[in-house]
Amino acid sequence: MDYSIVIAKDLLKIKAVFFRPEEPFTWASGIKSPVYCDNRLTLSDVQVRADVENGLAELVKAYYPEAEALFGTSTAGIAHAAITAHLLGLPMGYVRSGAKDHGRKNQIEGKLLPGQKVVVVEDLISTGGSVIEVVNILREAGAEVLGIVSIFTYGMQKGLDRLAAANVENHSLTNFDVIAEVAAAEGYIKPDDVARLIAFRNCPSDESWIGK
Predict the structure, then answer these.
(1) I need a labelling partner for 83 at 20 to 30 A (CA). Which of 39, 55, 75, 99 fits?
(2) Helix ranges restricted to H, 93-156
């Protein structure tokens, strides 16, 4: 089953990915963006959640059949890692964004064995910084990180370069290009908007796409 179009339609339907090229959103960095992403919304729709978790399970089986555990990113990847691990009958854990300042001061939650082959579960990849930090933390703790599975990726060059430099691969259920095409085909945006969206993805700091 090709999940890319199914998941693209799902994310658009529940507005987990929402395009607004005529009235851009402003990121914390100040960059104007024609897209808003909140894949946490997939957890609230039973059918979409099933599509996502079954899809992530299929990605793990297809690309990382030797996986021994799944580890989610905090916080968005935790639920997806838990459900997908349940479907696959695998152990699961997650990596905090920072170590706790109390108790055992863990940053990795769940049991991680030395040399264990793990897959990182992420909801969204843009520049790749946060997920690569998780990969590095797991590696430093002795895990063999096989790779990453995610719901959606922008395919930004910065993210691709960072993943390559970290020597880790990502496989996403769908991507920015597919969602843009599906959004145009189903009337969420105008067909002419697709080129504007791709221009944003290719160079987010260049705002020349606005108003075209």
Answers:
(1) 99
(2) 129-140
